[in-house]
Amino acid sequence: AANCARALEISALEQVRQAWQTQKTHQSSKVSAEMASNLAGRQLTSAAIAHAHAFFTRNALQQLDALRQKGDLSPNVSLVLGQLVELFVIDTFLRQSGCVLRWNNGITGTQLRFVERRFEELLAKLRPNAVALVDGFDFHDRVLGSTLGCHDGRVYERLMEEARRNPVNQEPVNSSFHNHLLPMMRGKL
Amino acid sequence: VNADLQRERAAATLDSEDFARWWAGGAWQLEERRSLERRFFEDPAFADTVHPSCLSYKERYEQTVARTTRFLAKLRQWQREKQPQLQLSVNMLRDFRLLLSGSLGTGLFQQSFPLRMHFTMFMTTILSQGTAEQQAQWLNRAWHMDGVLGTYAQTELGHGTFLRGLETRADYDPLTQEFILNTPTQSSYKWWPGGLGNTANVAIVLAQLHVKGKHYGLQSFVVRIRDERTHEPLTGVDVGDIGPRLGGNGVNNGFLGLHDVRIPRNQMLMKNAQVLADGTFVQGRPPLLLYGTMVYVRVITLKDVLFGLLQGATIATRYSVVRRQSRINSDEPEVSVLDHVTQQAKILPQIARGVSYRLVADWLWRFYAEVLRQLEDESMAGRNSLPELHALSCCLKAVATDEASEGVDLLRKSCGGHGFLSSANFDSIYGLATAAYTYEGEYTVLLLQTARFLVGQYVDSLKRKVLPTSVSYLRDTARLIWGKNL
């Protein structure tokens, strides 16, 4: 994960450099500084996004370390939290791999496949604790407000209840039948 | 309880209560939140008696206002029981804001509610930009909802983030010692503020100040827009709701036109700049804390969207265990969808993202508090850290809101057709997450502001200057790459 965060930093640095160079190139062709920024807009926004990814991943790893050092986490929470942060970093790396590869010529296909394998390993490790994890966020059913996500898992019962509560199901024949459908059928379009 | 969910819980190696205690910030915090939620969620006065699809836009607004008043009365009662001598302070307002946007507010108002702006922006702005006299005049009444229901009106129909482009103007008349406020064109109508439509009776209006024909920039004015007793719009005030939106339809976003509306001189917020009775303009200290308020809202937004993302992840995870779909081995029954790697790849990274955002948001919050403390002590360290804090809060808010709304939509899709039902609630969650992409700093505008900071820091790194911690990699990494040590 630390290597992925590093690769994201390198990618961010290169994108900032690219944005700066693009701005400079435009400025040297005698446009105003403001227009040069406008013309470099795509590179500038890409650089900011890359910086956010680099910062999110680096900082999450650092905060995890800090929490572990403080000793506030039980061993199980520490383990799962570590898996989550690693998954986050690797997922971010893979989703940004286009940019990362563009700026890191040293990364090989084999290395990339290794990261993908680790991603899948982490999914498998987290799978048994998925429900316990989301239970741990402790959202009350009222907060979720969802037929699909209630704590008791009575999904189909709730979907049926909601359908039956639906106002158009409150009478066997809706008035639109008499007002519109029946006249249309009588008129034999 | 569904048997599959029960089995999952029994087989887990993680104790969800253990995790919940850490997530809540400790056992005491967890218990306090649960007890507060019980107090509201088990109260029949807050039960949903009408099916949401039965309500029109207007009825939804009316129901939300009715519920909001009951909610605030009950919340106030709880606060008094906890702390009879409640002293209004910046910290208390911040806590209150967190309470409203946290689980309690979400549980009662899936589409948010109109008085949020009263506590988040109206009162906060008076606290940060008003003089002691102005605070005495407005704050206590606002806190007790005593004839003052406020909102904050900055953006205009034709103008957003570019503050210098705002057209609303305030002309000072030294003869009557009043400001005359006008929205001179249709594009200058205030547009978007929550609660402005039909709820608020006072608005903080941002307008270009002109005194004796000279322009003194954008200033904040407290403007009464509706009569305190009748709630009728006052003379010269054209106010209403802007209509249904993609999400957050409980907010009562409004428009506001002002035509020769006169307000007394003491209703310009004068902590940072003053207009004296004779029209002399006095510029105070640079409004650094004003800058801080914007940063504060962005830090909070980061917490809001991770909350929404994890709500979506919770719904999708539980559903994916209950839902059985296809066999993996042909001689075995259909498995839970979550047993398919493709489904895990949709859901688990969203949980990881939400939790990691939480770690970063907590850090950003501490950084923000530290910078604010340094600014209040007038230390140079605070001034030096402001650009870094500003850039970080901009780009983290932008990227987090983008990824959270994308994540919520992916979670919705992971629930197949059922995820598309309104009763699954992804529409509300997505609506709020995607609104955050635009409000309090539009995505691309924030990225460009961050980029300006990054390019400046990059140039500094070429001059071998010491960089702020969050961008120190620009220098260190460059050294590694160019030194070929990587």
What is the gist of this entry?
Chain A has 189 residues and is an all-alpha fold. Chain A has helices at residues 2-28, 33-39, 41-70, 75-95, 97-103, 109-126, 130-136, 141-144, 155-165, 175-187. In chain A, helix 1 (2-28) crosses helix 5 (97-103), helix 3 packs antiparallel against helix 4 (75-95) and helix 4 (75-95) runs antiparallel to helix 6 (109-126).
- Helical content of chain B, roughly? 40-55%
The end-to-end distance of chain B, rounded to whole angstroms, is 54 Å
Order of H and E elements of chain B:
HHHHHHHHEEEEEEEEEEEHHHHHH
What fraction of the residues of chain B are assigned to beta strands by DSSP?
5-15%
Report the structural category of chain A: mainly alpha
Quaternary organisation of the protein chains:
heterodimer
Continuous helix count of chain A? 10
How many beta-strand segments of chain B?
11
Question: Gyration radius of chain B, to the nearest Å?
Answer: 25 Å
Query: Largest sheet of chain A, if any?
Result: none
Chain pair forming the biggest interface: A-B, 85 and 97 residues
Tally of separate helices of chain B: 14
What this model shows, in words?
The complex is a heterodimer of chains A (189) and B (486). Chain A is mainly α and 189 residues long. Chain A has helices spanning 2-28, 33-39, 41-70, 75-95, 97-103, 109-126, 130-136, 141-144, 155-165, 175-187. In chain A, helix 1 (2-28) packs antiparallel against helix 3 (41-70), helix 3 (41-70) packs antiparallel against helix 4 (75-95) and helix 4 packs antiparallel against helix 6. The mean pLDDT of chain A is 94. Chain B has 486 residues and is an alpha+beta fold. Chain B has 14 helices and 11 strands. In chain B, the strands form 3 sheets. In chain B, strands 1, 2, 3, 5, 6 and 9 form a 6-stranded mixed β-sheet that branches. Chain B has a 3-stranded antiparallel β-sheet with strand order 4-8-7, with no helix packed on it. A two-stranded antiparallel sheet of chain B has the order 10-11. In chain B, strand 10 and strand 11 form a beta hairpin. The longest helix of chain B is centred in the C-terminal third of the chain and has 36 residues, at 341-376. The radius of gyration of chain B is 25 Å and the shape is globular. The interface between A and B is large, with 85 and 97 residues.
